[in-house]
Amino acid sequence: MNARIWKPNVTVAAVVERDGRFLLVEEETDQGLRFNQPAGHLDEGESLVNACIREALEETAHHVRPTALVGVYQWPRPARDITYLRFAFACEVTGEEVDRALDTGIVAARWLTIDDVRATRERHRSPLILQCIEDYLAGRRFPLDLIRHYD
């Protein structure tokens, strides 16, 4: 028997608001330029919180500090035979490396208002982008100690 082993792709995302604007990345994808939160895959041995901090820095050159878990999102993509399991964190900016090169494929970090985010839905990499921000704006916050990481 040739059984396929299924596992979700675990990702993290930083929901960063400053002065009424949200930090997104504009990135090259196989569907053209798309918007996303600073986000990416969990690396082996890495905690979810540390993955969020790393991805935000690599994709935006901003240092962030996660303050809460906004939510956990499951997004199946049957056409690609992939399911994403996203952990979205509310984060605050603690610094910026202005001259830092961004990850391959990232065109720029952009600060968008919620109206801008809503108006660019057709350019979102996934439906999770707006959902995470809407949940953040609705006040969804769970303590970080909800997540346990064991080395």
From TrEMBL:
Annotated keywords: Hydrolase, Magnesium
Keyword tRNA-binding: no
Gene3D superfamilies given in the database record: Nucleoside Triphosphate Pyrophosphohydrolase (3.90.79.10)
InterPro entries per the UniProt record, alphabetical: NUDIX_hydrolase-like_dom_sf, NUDIX_hydrolase_dom, NudJ
Range of residues in the leader sequence: none
Entry GO MF terms: nucleoside diphosphate phosphatase activity; ribonucleoside triphosphate phosphatase activity; thiamine diphosphate phosphatase activity
Domain annotation Nudix hydrolase: ranges: 5-135
The keyword Hydrolase is annotated on this UniProt entry: yes
A Pfam family assignment: NUDIX
Cofactor(s) required for function per UniProt: Mg(2+)
SUPFAM superfamilies, per the entry: Nudix
EC assignment: 3.6.1.-
Self-association state and partner proteins as the record states: Monomer.
Stated name of the protein: Phosphatase NudJ
Organism per entry: Oryzomicrobium terrae
